[in-house]
Design a protein that fits this description.
9-stranded mixed β-sheet; 6-stranded parallel β-sheet; 14 helices; 15 strands
Length: 387
């Protein structure tokens, strides 16, 4: 079922949300932060990350973030045997829940790899927010597909991060719902009023073609290299951390500027100084099912956008003319050139009209509604069985 919005949430206050994530809370502000940050305004949220290894005793280190959300990082001793991790983590997790006073909760998974720690728990409902096809990513654990099948068997609800992923996952579970990447419009429309560049961007000439996001195996660095070579008079601004690829492999032309990772709150200040936004994604297994959050963010910032033909960008954004689709370097250059000369006022009008139907608030409300229905249904089933 393709779900985009519901009326106001009835997810009862008092239930906690226990999230298991392969993504660290402070890495890049994306889907988990948008959603769980909203849940945290009404519920206790405990965000459990992957272990770090040090010389101390096994323990959780808990820190508080905005809106009262707490992040729990397990610390395990150096050299911990792989076979000992799951039983160790089960004990640590039980102790953590007791210390935090969490009894009634929804278990929310971004990764099935933490099932070994947590499948003994008895949550009110189990949610799998499947934002990517993780098994297709570089360095993915070989057992991930098996673990995901186990999670599907446990889950009450499965949410997917895009339409392409939804089409695959709906064959694996009876309650799969599509929630594509959404947008905090007010945050990114701030880019429309930016007058002063951040210091590290201010000296870069125009026109500027920008990208913000993780730079990894999903990035087509050869395409970036070729486009930069073809148009040395254009400046390419790259915001974001470099992970899972060697930084020495990145193209190092004078007109490519790697400014590093930026705080989510500061992104509009950078994007507001660009002329065109780009999404030079590689076309490979790791991008087959992605639904880039940055697509609506660029549009809300008022920029024309050029992207490689990622399925969930082509449909709907390319089909309605909001994003120019280009595959080769020559096509990418031609599309950027067209974007630099298009009617920006008309583009912004169409983008604003399209984005009126989207918001992370609506996505949160829809998910909350489904979770409440699932909890109520399970309680009714228990009550019926007891009669």
């Amino acid at each position: 079922m393709d779900v985009l919005s519901f009326p106001g949430s009835k997810f009862a206050d008092g239930h906690a949300v226990l999230c298991f994530s392969h993504l660290r809370w402070d890495f890049v502000f994306q889907r988990p932060q948008h959603l769980l940050g909203r849940f945290a305004k009404r519920h206790d949220v405990l965000f459990v990350e992957e272990p770090v290894y040090d010389g101390g005793e096994p323990r959780f280190v808990v820190t508080s973030k905005r809106d009262g959300l707490k992040v729990a990082v397990p610390h395990l001793p150096h050299g911990t045997d792989v076979s000992a991790i799951d039983p160790m983590m089960r004990k640590l997790l039980d102790r953590l829940l007791q210390e935090q006073g969490i009894e009634n909760f929804v278990a929310w998974y971004y990764t099935p790899m933490m099932l070994g720690w947590s499948e003994h728990l008895r949550p009110l409902a189990v949610v799998y927010d499947c934002m990517d096809e993780l098994s297709a990513f570089k360095n993915a654990p070989v057992e991930l597909r098996v673990k995901e099948a186990e999670l599907f068997a446990l889950a009450d609800l499965v949410f997917t991060g895009g339409r392409s992923l939804y089409k695959v996952k709906r064959e694996q579970h009876t309650a799969v719902y599509c929630f594509p990447s959404s947008i905090d419009v007010d945050h990114f429309t701030r880019a429309l009023d930016v007058e002063i560049d951040p210091v590290d961007q201010g000296g870069i000439p125009r026109p500027r073609i920008g990208f913000c996001g993780v730079i990894d195996e999903r990035s087509d660095i050869q395409l970036l290299r070729r486009v930069a070579e073809m148009r040395p008079d254009w400046q390419f601004v790259m915001l974001g951390p470099v992970v899972k690829i060697d930084e020495n492999d990145l193209p190092r032309h004078e007109n490519i500027h790697y400014l590093g990772a930026k705080n989510y709150d500061d992104l509009p200040d950078y994007i507001g100084g660009w002329d065109v936004a780009m999404m030079p994604f590689a076309l490979n297994e790791s991008t087959r099912f992605i639904s880039p959050t940055k697509t609506p963010e660029y549009l809300a910032a008022g920029l024309p956008v050029v992207s490689t033909p990622i399925r969930d960008v082509v449909r709907p954004y390319g089909e309605v003319g909001l994003v120019k689709i280009a595959e080769t370097a020559e096509e990418f250059v031609a599309s950027i050139q067209a974007a630099l000369t298009e009617d920006l006022a008309e583009h912004r009008r169409k983008a604003a009209e399209f984005l009126e139907t989207m918001s992370w608030d609506k996505t949160y409300e829809a998910m909350s509604e489904l979770i409440e229905e699932s909890i109520a249904s399970k309680r009714e089933a228990v009550a019926t069985a007891g009669r």
